[in-house]
Amino acid sequence: xxxxxxAIRRAKTREKPYKLYDELGLFLAISPSGSRLWRMxxxxxxxxxxxxxxxxxxxxLRDARKLRDDARDxxxxxxxxxxxxxxxxxxxxxxxxxxxxxxxxxxxxxxRRDGDKAWAHATATRCEYLLSLLDxxxxxxxxxxxxxxxALSAIRKIEKRGxxxxxxxTLQLASAVFRYAVATARLKSDPTRDLRGALTxxxxxxxxxxxxxxxxxxxxxxxxxxxxxxMTKWALQLAPHVFVRPGELRHARWDExxxxxxxxxxxxxxxxxxxxxxxxxxxxxxxxxxxxxxxTGANGYVFPSMRSRTRPMxxxxxxxxLRRLGYSTNEMTAHGFRAMASTLLNESGKWxxxxxxxxxxxxxxxxxxxxYHRGAHWKERIxxxxxxxxxxxxxxxxxxxxxxxxxxxx
Length: 410
What we know:
Elements: H1 5-10, E1 18-21, E2 26-30, E3 36-44, E4 47-55, H2 61-76, H3 81-97, H4 100-112, H5 121-132, H6 135-139, H7 148-160, H8 164-183, H9 213-224, H10 230-242, H11 246-250, E5 257-258, E6 263-266, E7 277-280, H12 283-296, H13 317-324, H14 336-348, H15 353-359, H16 367-376, H17 378-396
Antiparallel strand pairs: 1-2, 2-3, 3-4, 5-6, 6-7
């Protein structure tokens, strides 16, 4: 005889545990304490086993019968329902632990050590920061539960603060995290794949840069008169001579620099293109570095943080110094020293475009061509580095620079 809800509610506790049987192995175990637990008795592989479905009334009679029928279906398929239940519990726990933030952190750790494709330190720091902006929205959610509307809502919180480029980049990074979860069998599909047109497109802006010869001279004289922190002044003085990316300059270490050989080798992991970059040092660059070394010693970062020598100079330091010198963001930035060098070196007509591009560490999609040009233009780059520093000295002194010839060196 099958059970009914009325019969279950009327059942009294007894001094000893007892059972109320339903059908097909389902029964309700009633203990002296009053607890009522659904169980199912079944046979599998010649042995009698039991399966628990939870307490009554949290699990109703109807639900218990559905769970029983599901278990019987598994038995018919040749599966042990008790083992399948354990697997499902482990699977559910794994899914609950696979939050967006945990997988984002795992993805970032992978990208930091991803061989030739590994993120540079500055890139990794920036990407990790952008992904952390999602911690309070979708960060704690199991990644398989995140829907497009959840991701869009989280990204739009960034967009509403006027951070259009950060919102765009964060969406790209979130998509990369979701695709990584798909690739590692923790997600079926990327919920952001159809959101790319949902955000406001930011206006493309270029780094402010001084590129007129006379104005370059004024800038260099302003830097020489800088009255702020000494390390900042040295960094500003060296930046136009080496014209590397600001992050590469800030993270320069003494063990990368050979002053006797007049060479600075920036490791691949610090470079945007993930290849080591050789920077020939002019006499002027060496003079600045020698001055720094005489004060700080030749260990650790060349430009350490004011707070700790174990950390590099802050990424905002050079731009803040340029603001103190009176240059707005549209007029000059730390990155602008690269545009300054690129413009005047190309206008000079003395150096091949390939040598200039190699000096700027711009990538070359043709690997054979890239390998050839690294060797073919090294001597030219050494000469160009000294010529460039000499030109900067001339501009600093206020010399009048005649228009450069239009012919290019062969």
